[in-house]
Amino acid sequence: AQIRYSIPEELTRGAFVGNIAKDLGTDVAKLAAANLQVLSDSDSQYFSVNVNTGVIMVSERIDRERLCGQNPRCFLHLKLAIENPVEFYRIEVEILDINDNPPEFPSDEVSLRIYELASLGARFPIQPAQDPDVGTNTLQTYHLSANENFNLNVKARTDGGKFPELVLEKALDRELRAFHHLVLTAEDGGSPPQSSKTRITIQVLDANDNHPVFDRPSYGARLVENSPLGTLVVKLNATDVDEGPNGDIRYSLSSHNSAALRQIFAIDEQTGEIRVQGNLDFEEATVYEIEVEAKDMGSPTMEEHCSVVVEITDVNDNAPEVILTSFSSSLSEDAPPGTVVAVIHVRDRDSGEQGKVQCHVPPDLPFQLRKDYEHQYSLLTSAHLDRERVAYYNVTVSASDLGSPPLSRHTILPIALADVNDNAPQFEQASYEVLVAENNPVGSVLVTVSAADPDSEQNSRLSYSILRAGGTDPGLDPTRYLSIHPTSGQVSAKLPFDYEQTTYLQFHVEVSDGGSPALRNRTLVHVFVVDQNDNAPRVHFPRAGEDSATQFRISPSTAPPALITKVVAIDADSGRNAWLSYHLAEATDPGLFSVALRSGEIRITRALQETDASAHELLVVVRDAGEPPLSTAITLVVLVEERGPEALQGSEARASDGGGLPTITLYLIVSLVLISTVSLVGLAVLGVRCL
Questions:
Q1: Residue 663: in which H helix or E strand, if any?
Q2: Which pLDDT belongs to residue 647?
Q3: What is the CATH number of domain 538-640?
Q4: What is the CATH architecture of 321-418?
Q5: How far apart are CA 532 and CA 161, in angstroms?
Q6: Is 680 exposed, middle or buried (0-12, 13-18, 19+ CB in 10 A)?
Q7: Continuous segment of H or E residues that includes residue 554
């Protein structure tokens, strides 16, 4: 048999459960005699039986939630054992729930993080409260404190569980309210009901819903060109009301900027400082417009743009430029003044006064600048040019601007003067005097005439030739004796000179250049033939045959200093080479006769004696004064006889000492005087011309 009892939980010890004797219909005394025992299926003895009364009592605290949890029905099973006879009775005690437990949230505080851009209707589950009671005593409902943004939705599960959800009814805005504080109450269905609360703190997470904002729509700055690298242009300031990465701003140059601008300016992505990192050149750009963007670090990123206008102030940093529009580096030396040599264009990339340019050339050069119009000049010749005086000019064109301080540029124009055949050749000497020894070798150089022509190249290539001099003997053709090298001017002998035939020769040497037309000049050359001792004296009287002697007869009574005879000799040479001296080289009686040194007279020096020989042989030597001297000899035989002296052969013999000069000697003297006079006159004329 099975007996069932129902008792609420949490009864005190000794509380009545049931009367087993009554319910079994057994006498109490019999139960006591039957040795009644209570056996429990659990580890704990929640019940006991009073054998004297047959009453089952609670012996320990019974917590239904601990025993059965959320089971809707909770039973404790007992076994009663009776002896004599043995009988077993099963007793089932149902433990009824009482509202002894309020709903409990897992935590007194709940934190939620919700993005501010969460869509309306979004649900945010809250961890439910737990109520170990069952039935109506368990959790029945939730209540949410009043607020503008959230409603409460309680979601029921098939197992009876209730889960609260916050439903977003109004959009969140972190920038207006970053935190929301709500109270969620859980209430059971007991009587009286029990409840518990949890505080819900909702942190509105920032969504990147705000773009950065610059404090100005545009920025302006002014810099001088050539500002040093690192110069601060402007410091940008942008703010973003978002927080965290969404409000963390990075600055950068927009991709709309050109690559050239990016090389000139750089921006610090953290501070927004724009600084110079390249060369600022006013001449390349007077204004720079920089597009800048500020981006936050949200996802997705939001950005804002602004422009920075940088005005560049010009400084005088560019020297003027000189550009040759037209230029001829070669100029004919006969170009008249005013000839255009070059057309020059000048410019300065600076602006204002700093871009105005003035040009000039050195005043000591035969050139001048003419300003044709703004920025253009012509370089002209200002005087006559002479290549032979100055063949090459380096004309420095100086261009200066009006900046402070001024900048300038110097351009050198090399101008070479082209030669014109405007100069005739000039001999180094107006005339030449040449002394040539006779018997000169053929081909020997007598003189070198030299001329110079200040012109150049073909105009200075000289050619020499020999011309007959006016007033000379037509029979004396200089080209018969002489030749001249056409380029070196060396005058050479074609024949040896013979002083005895030609003592003097003059001719012109003409030089001509290679210009067109050719220019010429002449010089006079005087050739004086110098005598050489190349002729031995020749005895003119007395005449004697070859290898024979000439005989003279004198009386034995001839008294000294009687003239016996006179040796007359001539020398075809001149000067010292023709100065003759007579010498008695040998004689039969050296003391009987003498020979006059200069006149060649042979005289008796003492009276003849009977002991003297009747025939005397005399060897007379005639010698000139040349170097080395040349001589000739004649043998005379003087016979001493009673007959009178014979007439001198070829001349009149005079006994007296006062005989006149022979005709040939007179001719020689006159010739010597004439030659000396001509020489003196020539030397005088030469001296005057040199002076």
A1: helix 663-690
A2: 39
A3: 2.60.40.60
A4: Sandwich (2.60)
A5: 165
A6: exposed
A7: strand 550-554
Instruction: Tell me the three-class secondary structure of 199-219, residue by residue.
Output: EEEEEEECCCCCCCEECCCEE
Q: CB of 218 within 8 A of CB of 309?
A: yes
Q: The dihedral of CA 682, 685, 689, 691: what is its sign?
A: positive
Evaluate whether 353 touches 403 at the Cβ level (below 8 Å): yes
Say which CATH class 426-530 falls into.
mainly beta
> In whole angstroms, what is the distance from residue 492 CA to residue 498 CA?
16
What residue has token string 């040497």? 509
Q: Tokens for 452?
A: 């110079």
- DSSP-assigned states of every residue in 111-137: EEEEETTPPTT-EEE-PPPB----GGG
Q: What is the pLDDT of residue 432?
A: 93
What are the structure tokens assigned to 272, written together? 């927004």
Give me 56's structure tokens. Answer: 């089952």
**What pLDDT is stored for residue 646 in this prediction?**
47
**Rounded Cα distance, 91 and 89, in Å:** 6
Q: How far apart are CA 242 and CA 207, in angstroms?
A: 7
Q: Which is it for the CA torsion 59, 63, 64, 69, positive or negative?
A: negative
91 confidence band (pLDDT: 50, 70, 90) = confident
CATH of 109-205, one of 1.25.40.10, 2.60.40.60, 3.40.50.720, 3.30.470.30: 2.60.40.60
- Which residue, among 600, 604, 617, has the nearest Cα to 566 in the 3D structure? 600
202 by Cβ neighbours in 10 Å (0-12 / 13-18 / 19+) ranks as buried
Q: Are 251 and 272 in contact (CB under 8 A)?
A: yes
How far apart are alpha carbons 175 and 239 in whole angstroms? 14
Q: Name 203's bridge partners.
A: 113, 179
**How does residue 1 score in pLDDT terms, banded at 50, 70 and 90?**
low
- For residues 326-349, average pLDDT: 91
Domains 321-418 and 426-530 share a fold: yes
Instruction: Locate 87 and state its tokens.
Output: 């009988």
Q: Is the pLDDT of residue 577 over 70?
A: yes
Res. 627: pLDDT tops 50: yes
Both structure tokens of 656: 């007296």
Q: Under a CB-based contact definition with an 8 Å cutoff, are residues 243 and 206 in contact?
A: yes
Given a cut of 60, whether residue 575 has pLDDT beyond it is: yes
Distance CA 194, CA 208 (A): 44
pLDDT of residue 649: 37
| Residue-wise DSSP of 220-277 | EEEEETTPPTT-EEEE--EE-SS-GGGG-EEEEE-TTS-HHHHHHEEE-TTT-EEEE-
Domain-by-domain residue ranges, the chain?
3-96, 109-205, 213-313, 321-418, 426-530, 538-640
Alpha-carbon gap, residue 19 to 25, rounded angstroms: 10
| Three-class SS state of 597 | coil
**Residue the block writes with tokens 């959230």:** 150
* Beta bridge partner(s), residue 396: 412
Cα-Cα-Cα-Cα torsion 127, 130, 134, 136, nearest 10 degrees, comes to: -70
Domain 213-313 has CATH 3.30.300.30: no
Neighbours of 598 (CB within 10 A): 10
Residues with Cβ within 8 Å of 391's Cβ and at least 6 positions away in sequence, in order, are 416, 417, 456
Cα separation, 686 vs 691, in Å, equals 9
Predicted confidence (pLDDT) per residue in 5-44, tens digit: 888 988 888 888 888 878 877 777 777 776 777 777 666 7
pLDDT tier for residue 450 given thresholds of 50, 70 and 90? very high
Planar angle of CA 681, 685, 690, nearest 5 degrees: 145
Neighbours of 86 (CB within 10 A): 9
